[in-house]
Predict the 3D structure of the following.
Amino acid sequence: MKKPLELALLFEPIVNFSRSETYAMFVDVSVPFSVPHGRVRDVLLEAARKTAGIVEAPPPEVYGKDVTGSAIEYQLLAYTKEPERMKQIKSDLV
């Protein structure tokens, strides 16, 4: 009989960095309720489009992630084909 950890691992996605074409990066941003969702989405997507190293396809995406105090935490998901530069690309995006 398989142990719980072994069973859990059976359902986890496996990323092979030597075979993947794009690599995901996440950036979390907290924004006050007073800023409209559409404005936040537009600004984050524009930042992703203007950041060198982020690819057009798959396109960047923005999600509402959490509510903390009087702010909404958003998550920007963007992709790169340069895993060796991911830290710098993410820094440039921030």
